[in-house]
Amino acid sequence: MDHDRTFSDSEPAAGRVAGLGPSARAEAAIAALISEPLAPGLYLVATPIGNLSDISLRALSVLARADTIYCEDTRHSAKLLQHYAITTRTRPFHDHNEERESERIIAELKSGKRIAVISDAGTPLLSDPGFKLVRAAAADGIPVIAIPGASALLAALTTSGLPTDAFFFAGFLPPKQAARRARLAELSAVPGSLVFYEAPHRVAETLADMASLFGGRQGVVARELTKLHEAIVRGSLTEIAATSVDGLKGEVVIVVGPEQAQSVSDDALAERLARALEVMSLKDAAKALADEFGVPKSRVYGLGIKAKDARP
After folding, report:
1. Residue 18 CB: number of other CB atoms within 10 A?
2. Do 281 and 206 reside in the same domain of the chain?
3. What are the DSSP E strand ranges found in 41-182?
4. 237 and 270 in contact (C-beta within 8 Å)?
5. What's the number of CA atoms in the CB half-sphere (13 Å) around residue 290?
6. CA of 62: how far to CAs of 18, 150, 154, in Å?
7. What are phi and psi of 177, to 5 degrees?
8. In the chain, where do the E strands start and end?
9. What does pTM read for this prediction?
């Protein structure tokens, strides 16, 4: 939702100077941020999911001022840090060393250090290590600060055209077919859109299982998000599963619409909309029917505009 807001006192005054263009304002804002001391604590910093420009000024200032940046893969993160001339030392933090490194990080935090945690791409902790570290830090009264930003999960969901009012993030499915199908069966009754991450070499078999278990539900496959060859494929899961998905690179996001979203045709929805418009505005009718049938409000609104344009 969009809300009116005002700048808080914590935001750099330089960013509010009248007469400055966007570039000058950004430069002034980050200069003001970097000039201020960074408070001790654990910072969870979101990084770009592809396009290096998708990082906030606040994220850059935290990474530049932290004592240590813990990365899922230091070699991968080096590209981002070098791009922005950030020289903060880095250490690896991944599934295989999480328990050992968490003890080190907690000790550093207790001594007053400023620690940043980043993943290879996007928001930390989403299908990445860090949950246990955050829990331990919070239990010890150590400040845990989120520096929000890019997320493949939200980028795929919001561009999918599928309902966003309720969704369930299921992360990665099991690699073995029997376990994967069992997990999908468990999720079939979830009342909302389902969002999955998947490795490129398993996308075809995962889509086949989804088409088999979820029937005619709508789905979306999003790949290379924010990159040059970004692609978003929409359609029924059966249609998408029949499409060639060979040669994919990088992780893929799959969004599956709720079962109810496919239980009403455009003709039936238009007929129901016509009756609703006898007692309410198109805006109110679109929201009411979207909630009733679990379909995007834009779909209902579009049918209303189409019907209006078709009138003599």
Report:
1. 4
2. no
3. 41-45, 68-71, 90-92, 114-118, 144-147, 167-172
4. no
5. 21
6. 26, 16, 23
7. -60, -45
8. 41-45, 68-71, 90-92, 114-118, 144-147, 167-172, 193-198, 218-223, 231-236, 252-256
9. 0.77
pLDDT digits (tens, 9 = 90+) for 158-207: 999 999 999 999 999 999 999 999 999 999 989 899 999 999 999 999 99
Pairing of strands 231-236, 218-223: antiparallel
Residue 218 gets the label, from left (phi > 0), alpha (psi -120 to 50) or beta, of beta
Q: Are residues 221 and 119 in the same domain?
A: no
- φ, ψ for residue 115, nearest 5 deg: -115, 130
Say which amino acid occupies 27. Answer: E
CB 129 within 8 A of CB 98: yes
Q: How far apart are CA 175 and CA 288, in angstroms?
A: 40
Count of C-beta atoms within a 10 Å radius of residue 254: 25
> Is the same domain home to 194 and 220?
yes
Q: What is the spatial distance between Cα 191 and Cα 179, in angstroms, rounded to a whole number? A: 22
- Domain boundaries, position 284: 266-310
Domain boundary among 262, 280, 302: 262
How does pLDDT run across 24-71, given as a tens digit for each residue? Answer: 999 999 999 999 999 999 999 999 999 999 999 999 999 999 999 999
Tell me what the mean pLDDT of segment 19-26 comes to: 85
* Token pair belonging to 85: 């001339």
